[in-house]
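Blinded run. Sample ID left blank on purpose so nobody reads anything into the name before looking at the predicted structure. Input follows.
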Amino acid sequence: MLDNLFNLVQKGGPVMIIIILVSLAAFTLIIKKWLFLRKKMADPIFLERFFSRIGEKDFVSAKALCEERSSPIAEILAIGIDHREKEKERIRELIHEVILRELHSLEKHLSTIAVLAVILPILGLLGTVTGMISTFEVLSKVGTTDPAALAAGISEALLTTQAGLITALPTLLFHNFLSNKVDQITLDMEAALSRFLNLLE
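Blinded prediction complete.
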């Protein structure tokens, strides 16, 4: 496997090295982001236990449940309990401030992943252009018109485009997947807030 990678780098040139490094950076960020978001997702069991306590007006027990967790939903619900004596609109405003802060944290690195997904195919195209220029320069110096030699040179030059596209596609798909998770977490926070306020009536 290492031999194949070395041969790929050797044929693709310096641009291939950059593509490999950029793709490694992208997938490292993707893994870190997924692990981060997974901890932030709503826990249905926690929510049912929490709202059961709220329905019974057992705010102390409900607050204790929130303190056992480190999710954004638990945080906003704990804030809701602390300010439950205030008007609903004021509670909503306070919690929306927290949601906006959490949203900034949830979206962190997503723009970087998107940029890397765009850069990868461009790097691949750059590698192909520079590779073809080098191929034609060598052929012009040697003075050969052998189609086989020309085809071999172009084939090697196209390797970087292939590598750029192969790495860009999953990066783009994962970016979309992670963005959807952020949207879902945000919607879950809004839904939890609305349910909490309704139970205060």
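Unblinding after everyone has recorded impressions. The radius of gyration is 27 Å.
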